[in-house]
Amino acid sequence: MPMLPENVDVDLRKPLNNVNNSANKMLIFTAECHINNYQLYNFA
């Protein structure tokens, strides 16, 4: 593993964190929608 200067390492990591956070929010949102639909079908 080549050693990177700290500032380069941070610059590479930040966009990845933003992408991961966005993906996690979408997954949570999708799961909540599925749960809401499931409850509507079962308790309507």
UniProtKB/TrEMBL annotation:
UniProt superkingdom: Eukaryota
The protein, known as: 1108_t:CDS:1
